[in-house]
Amino acid sequence: MKFFSDYTNLILIAIAVISGALLAWPVLMRRGRGLSSQDATQLINRRNAVVLDIRSAEAYAAGHLPQARHLAFADLAGKAAQVAKNKNTPVIVVCQSGVQSARAEALLKTAGYAEVHGLDGGIDGWQKAGMPIVKQGVAK
To answer: How far is it, in rounded angstroms, from Cα 3 to Cα 33?
Structure first.
């Protein structure tokens, strides 16, 4: 008990707890948010993630991520089983701003997909990060 009665030790314990909380803060705040453009690129390149664009056909044709598959959100519930052959394959869901992808994530997780991520900021966030999009078969 003498250890806890010494004020120097209490200050050191407080510093350790505060520094641990500050280190954990970014991880805790990221929970529930989507995948950044850089993290999505790594997931696509390293683990062959399936990129699923859930926007309208017109928005998809106007520009989408390279290698993205199109499946409108309205059709997702009925065709969720066709997204990937292996349900352990990572799936990245892309919408316009990142809002609708959260609902699609929940739908795909319910369908049995183990790893589903929404792209943070959607296609808008992807473009703001300076990442390429494909229009009519031409990368831009």
So the answer is: 42
**Could you report the per-residue pLDDT of 4-42, keeping only the tens digit for each?**
678 788 888 889 999 988 888 766 654 456 799 999 999
The residues annotated as belonging to the active site are 95
In this structure, which CATH number among 3.20.20.80, 3.40.50.300, 3.30.450.20, 3.40.250.10 belongs to the domain 37-139?
3.40.250.10
Q: Tell me the β-bridge partners of 50.
A: 91
Residues 6+ apart with CB under 8 A from 39: none
0.90 surpassed by pTM: no
The model's pLDDT over 59-92, given as tens digits with 9 standing for 90+, comes to 999 999 999 999 999 999 999 989 999 999 999 9
Distance CA 60, CA 135 (A): 8
Q: In this structure, what token pair is assigned to residue 17? A: 């707890």
**Type of residue at 66:** P
